[in-house]
Design a protein that fits this description.
It contains 10 helices and 2 strands, in the order αββααααααααα. With 198 residues, it is mainly α. The longest helix is centred in the C-terminal third of the chain and has 36 residues. It comes from Sagittula salina.
């Protein structure tokens, strides 16, 4: 799963409109600064040059340690792990908050705190026992809606949700990779959803 995320994220970018700053393989400069071995070029600081020096192997290790095992995504039902893991790399604890809000919508009672603890794990297991595929689809749809809300509020982020040609952007396509095809937005539905953006 970590290798697939690295493939989705791509190489080095330093987009001024991206709050994450300099990024390579999905690892931001902020993440690198929180890793003891983040000074990859050995010059005594962690800057853009360290991000550029990051390898695929480094990224996979960071994702597995800090974004899969660390937040306990590895303890979620297998069907849900790829989407929550991918979202955690992309949005941090918000990935878990989306999951917890969805659990509450499904009749479970968990805190929406962005932390996967025993109660969240038990609630996810119960929700998935009822219908795992339906719950996984619901998570993917909630994730897609999260991206739309960001783009609604922050015009500079719209380029991640909609292409210059007006089609689905990377964020939306990424969310839909984890949703059954019948729940993908049609081109017409997508255009209607983003029409207010101008």
């Amino acid at each position: 799963m970590a290798e697939e995320i690295v493939d989705r994220e791509g190489g080095f970018v330093n987009d001024p409109d991206d709050p994450g700053g300099a990024t390579k393989f999905g690892v931001t400069i902020h993440t690198l600064r929180n890793i003891p071995w983040g000074d990859l070029d050995g010059d005594g600081d962690i800057d853009v040059m360290d991000v550029k020096a990051l390898t695929r192997g480094h990224a996979v290790q960071i994702f597995e340690d800090r974004y899969f095992h660390g937040p306990r995504i590895d303890e979620l039902p297998a069907l849900l792990q790829p989407s929550v893991f991918d979202m955690y790399v992309n949005a941090g604890a918000n990935a878990v908050k989306i999951l917890q809000a969805l659990l509450n919508d499904a009749g479970e009672s968990v805190a929406v705190d962005g932390v996967i603890g025993p109660r969240s794990i038990a609630a996810v297991n119960r929700a998935c026992a009822r219908n795992a595929l339906r719950f996984a689809d619901a998570y993917g749809i909630a994730r897609r809606d999260y991206y739309f809300r960001i783009a609604d509020r922050r015009p500079k982020s719209r380029k991640y949700a909609r292409t210059r040609a007006g089609g689905k952007g990377g964020w939306i396509k990424r969310a839909e990779e984890f949703i059954s095809p019948r729940y993908h937005m049609t081109d017409a539905q997508f255009r209607k959803r983003v029409a207010a953006w101008g």
